[in-house]
Amino acid sequence: RAAALSRPPAPPAEAPVARATVTDRNGEILAVSLPLTALYANPRQIENATEAADRLRTVLPQLDRERLIARMTGERQFAYIARALTPREMAHVNALGIPGLYFEEAERRYFPQGRTAAHIIGGVDVDAQGIAGVERYFDERLRGNPSERLRLSLDIRVQLALRDSVQRAITEFNGIGGAGVVMDVNTGEVLSMVSLPDYDANDVGAATADQRFNRVTVGVYEPGSTFKLLTASMALEYGTVQPWQGYDASRPIRVGRFTINDYRGKNRWLALPEILAYSSNLASAHMAAAVGVNRHREFLQRMGMTSRLRIEIPETALPLVPGQRTWRELNTMTIGFGHGISVTPLHIATAGATIVNGGILRQPTILAQPPGTQREGTRVISERTSELMRRLMRLVVTDGSGRSAEVPGYFVGGKTGTAQKTGPRGGYLENKRIAAFVGAFPMYAPRYAVYVMVDEPKPNARSHGFATAGWVAAPAAGMVISRIAPILGMLPEPATPEITRAITMPMNGRGIPGMAPAPAPAAAPARPTGPRPAAQPA
């Protein structure tokens, strides 16, 4: 027998433990362990390391000569030479007959989807230990039960569509990155999670820090006007505003050295539907102030906006929020329109799902749930508030800044959000912004929430010099919905009288079809101490 096949005088290092296969919700393989042959050396048995290295490189020229010589020199009895040999390479090495070389049967983790779901799957090291994503989170389970498949909530078809749509938006607007989420609003299952740029899960070591960075769960950004959905939900829930009521948005708000303005404002009093459709910072600031600092902070805590989300991947970030002792009315006013607080895109997607699903907060999950499963959740807003918000979100798409997200027959609702990025030392960066859209469909019976974000988009000719969310993120979200809805078995529907009645919101907030009068508020509105809100009937 050739020396490479002879029994080693000392047992080799323990082979990597087999790992269970990971699949998407439909059984498509995302991670699998494949058998391979490794080559290792016993340096004590190699008489001439230089000669052995030169001969070995005639078969394996990719090996570094100096490093190879070093590994085959010394008093140790075991050193890996190559982790994965093809059958042809194995035969050629065997034919060399070099004493002190041995073969070892092992396994290699393979990710058939490559980049497509890298931030969800994560990756493994050379010893097949999970180092990121579900491979790390479920490392013990995957190693302990190699025959039991791990089934994720991910739908690789939806993942491919979302990734392509976000990449198109990044390319069109010359952004530095982007993110996207598709979530089942009733179960919290994440069907798709995209962070760009990404990396090949088969070669984690070659990925840069920016490629490994998960913008969906680790990136914290000021959410901008998408956060107005939470402000409106809060005000409706506390009874400090009704759809036909509103606030003065005719003049800037000055608090100390700070001034709050509207972007292309209407310069007049606005009813609640107009506040969201036209995305008024001024009216949103007044609306938050009317609720009061303490109740505002408590509401955001209940919505999960001040804590780390619980999801089955280890890479998650804590939101950046003012401390309880430093949270003042100015903080409440700016947070009311999405500035002065930083959360992850997954926080916003989860909030969007909560607002439209009847008001139940369910932590997002990456694990597939059995059909018909009712996951536990916490009621954070009433069904009435949720219904009003669905109508308001639909209005944003039909008559407001989210028009480009509309997909005929799917009755999309949502909210745009454009926010300046903060610098590493505080303050805002000039011409560096986040453009995002969060929405759901169909609004008469929501099933899926969609979030799309582009990081630092640049204006172009098609957008007439704008790089705001209505031009950047909303059309990308519309593209996502148009592509994934048929995949998920949803066909477009006509606007029947029943559907129209269920999703209509007049711009003045009066005469909402099929809605009962508002109940009396549970508590008296908090009296603001700064700029006075100008709530009045329409």
TrEMBL record:
May I have one GO cellular component term? plasma membrane
Sequence ranges of Pro residues compositional bias: 516-538
The compartments listed are: Membrane
Query: Which residues belong to the signal peptide in this entry?
Result: none
For this protein, the record's InterPro entries field holds: Beta-lactam/transpept, Beta-lactam/transpept-like, PBP_dimer, PBP_dimer_sf, PCN-bd_Tpept
Record key words, sorted: Carboxypeptidase, Hydrolase, Membrane, Protease
Q: Which residue windows are transmembrane per the record? A: none
Which Pfam families did the record assign? Answer: PBP_dimer, Transpeptidase
Q: Which residues form the Penicillin-binding protein transpeptidase domain?
A: 178-464
One GO BP annotation here? cell wall organization
Question: In the record, what terms sit under GO molecular function?
Answer: carboxypeptidase activity; penicillin binding
Domain of life from the UniProt record: Bacteria
The organism is Neoroseomonas soli
Quote the protein name from its UniProt record.
Answer: Penicillin-binding protein 2
Q: Key word Protease present in the record?
A: yes
In this chain, the stretch annotated as Disordered covers 510-538
Q: Which residues form the Penicillin-binding protein dimerisation domain?
A: 16-148
